[in-house]
Amino acid sequence: MKQDMIVILDLGSTENTTLARAIRDLGVYSEIHPHDITARELKELENVKGIILNGGENRVVDGQAIDVLPEIYGCGYPVAAIDHQAAQCETKLEALPDTNWLKEFLFNVCKAEPNWNMKNFVEDQVELVRRQVGDKKVLLALSGGVDSSVVAALLLKAIGQQLVCVHVNHGLMRKGESESVVSVFRDQLSANLVYVDATERFLGKLAGVADPEEKRKIIGSEFIRVFEEEARKQEGIDFLGQGTIYPDIIESGTKTAKMVKSHHNVGGLPEDMKFELVEPLKQLFKDEVRACGLELGLPDSMVFRQPFPGPGLGVRCLGAITRERLEAVREADAILREEFENAGLNKKVWQYFTIVPDFKSVGVKDNARCFEYPVIIRAVNTVDAMTATIEQVEWPVLLRITDRILKEVENVNRVCYDLSPKPTATIEWE
């Protein structure tokens, strides 16, 4: 590994990601690990230069204050503590460190080198993937979104034709999405791409399921089953590639952090899965994934493409999915994307999409009373997907979008704009 690392041990802080980003911003790689990591597990990490114990409001679990194992202090690494009373730490702070303190600890105490950059990251991951995979094949879940596209490019660089990309159309894709994926990856990038239309299979499994966590788990499990079936048609596939990124892991919860929501590629994987996972982006934040894509030579149009959740429109058609509402959210989303592009907002806004909830409201169409669904528009800006602000879209643009949705989308009589930032809201509704 070409990059020095600082390990953050989670002792109940809500500021772990802030600290990790601050360290990376200074050019040093950082990772967040559970408080009860063993000395052996710590030693297995490469190029560790120091440890920060990050305590906080969640440090007390079931009435007991959690702590690191005593053996950690004997590993030979410099140890600092934030808001954590550890007698064996040479450096103690009452709160999150300022940049000056952090520089002092990283560069003078730990002797870390500021060698965290995408060129080194890519080289490290290529080496690690080759070491992990050997001469076997990797089956990649390729949605065509930013994360899976960057993973595909990285794995192609690492193992070439040992990569088999599988694009599953689960019937929850945006309008024209699957056709675009096939065109870009099979025709332009010459990837070994398998296309699977599993629309009826997924919608059948999801029929009547309203709970968002259950929907995620069904979609995640069914994805694995489809991949297993495709793997049986190949030879030598022992690995499953995924576009898991750091916010997916963090939001799905750790031993000392509360779960925000499970992600289909983290919390929804079946226990009896027969693949070993290959997840080269799992320690990157969203902006770092994009930087990685640029380093790999992917075009801007792909790197800065609209984020799209793994469960697709399944978490934007709220509650139990119906074909009627699924079609409404798909058509409304297509209108929103077209109008944002016309207004130049597609290059300004990080993520924008529509939601159709599972309730109706009274309205008037053709001089008659109607009882139909609302469409909710959401447009947010963020750097790392951990926090988000609302885009203040100009009124004429919103009016034009509203007019088109009400005229062109069936079973809809109302359009709303979501003004909630993250926190307290998450970016998606489910």
TrEMBL record:
Keywords: ATP-binding, Glutamine amidotransferase, GMP biosynthesis, Ligase, Nucleotide-binding, Purine biosynthesis. InterPro entries: Class_I_gatase-like, GATASE, GMP_synth_C, GMPS_ATP_PPase_dom, NAD/GMP_synthase, Rossmann-like_a/b/a_fold. It is an enzyme of class 6 (ligase). PROSITE patterns: GMPS_ATP_PPASE. GO terms for cellular component: cytosol. The keyword Nucleotide-binding applies. ATP binds at S143, G144, G145, V146, D147, S148, S149. Residues 116-305 form the GMPS ATP-PPase domain. Pfam families: GATase (PF00117), GMP_synt_C (PF00958), NAD_synthase (PF02540). Catalyzes the synthesis of GMP from XMP. Its EC number is 6.3.5.2. It comes from the Bacteria. Pathway: Purine metabolism; GMP biosynthesis; GMP from XMP (L-Gln route): step 1/1. One of its GO terms (molecular function) is GMP synthase activity. It comes from Lactonifactor longoviformis DSM 17459. This is GMP synthase (glutamine-hydrolyzing).
